[in-house]
Amino acid sequence: MSDTADSSETRTTPDSRLDTLVKAPLSSIFQAASETLDLRFLLLQTLVHPLNALQSNLSHLLPLTMFGFGGKKFRPDEDIGDLSGKVVVITGGEWFRLDTCVLSADKMTGNNGLGKESVLQLAKHNPARILLAARTPSKAEAAIKEIKTAVPSANISYLKLDLCSFKSISAAAQDFQSQSPRLDILMNNAGIMATPLAETEDGYESQFGTNHMGHALFTKLLMPILLKTAEEEGSDVRIVNLTSEGHNLAPRPQGILLDEAKLKAQGPWARYGQSKLANILFTKELASRYPSITSVAIHPGIISTGLYGPNQQSNMLLRYGVMLIGPLIMADVRTGALNQLWGAAGKKTEVMSGNYYTPVGACSKGSKWAQKKDLAEELWAWTEQELASKGYS
Description:
By secondary structure, the protein is of the alpha/beta class. The chain has helices at 3-9, 14-36, 38-48, 50-58, 76-79, 114-123, 137-150, 166-179, 206-230, 260-264, 268-289, 309-314, 316-329, 333-336, 338-345, 373-389; strands at 87-91, 129-134, 156-160, 185-188, 238-242, 294-298, 356-358, 362-364. The chain has an 8-stranded mixed β-sheet, sandwiched between helices. 48% of the residues are buried.
């Protein structure tokens, strides 16, 4: 059929123009929903773990722990013990450069979120030192200054770290090792969520590259000092990896796509889901391979932090979804940090290495992928091979 015939058959009529006007907005909505599924994460939390959402947000009105639901009651001021002599490293902060990854620093608020809150609460219990690892000195120093106002005696310093760059990660690990002979708590807190497609400096999809690969390398490079500290009598060394119930959104049916091209063909939430599933699987392998260290994967809950900001700006479904649903299911940052604080400083007899915990201290099996030992082993082997290929064997 000729081009002329095609154009004549599709000539616009008044009725077709009206039909287009009606369908266009609906098409945009359905396209946004099908391509990004921005509301799935919010709805997933409420539908799959409604009691967690209630416990996180209504605990001041209805303490569900009294009925045996919603996890443990954890009060940082009272339940975190004396941390004298201990050294803590917490990753957290605005990681992303426009030229390499996804977002400019002012769009990410890790230093105003769970990382900062964790530093504040741990600082109250007299640790020898806390290092806040982040990319931008000015933002990290501002956070540290604010925390020291609340805890004047706190010894908190800044460690330059860009999780988008293996070179920066290596430099940060070397910098830390030159400053401290020990490391008692490593909290891999930083991360991004459902961001547009981009690559890290080393060529990995940005979410997987940051949330998994960046922290995997940082942990690997700090492992010698973690193991050395664990050899000391009375030590209690911990690695706390932040993950998410969003790991349920990982690519189907595999869960983990190690082919970069296939991963990059996925939508933002599937890519996010893979990175969070990787955090759980990585934690299980850490526990298996390094039994002298307590390694746990932590889901903080649905927290009102800057992670949702970029997505709200670009997608109207999430923007209005957060406005409507957010107040019902989103907890504040202080509440959101409880689970990772429990993982870092809760009773050693309760925090079991290799487990995945939802708020607060509630052990969960996670998705079917999170329970696959062979998948965890495959991811570990692949990660080690990738790091070795970049010179980090």
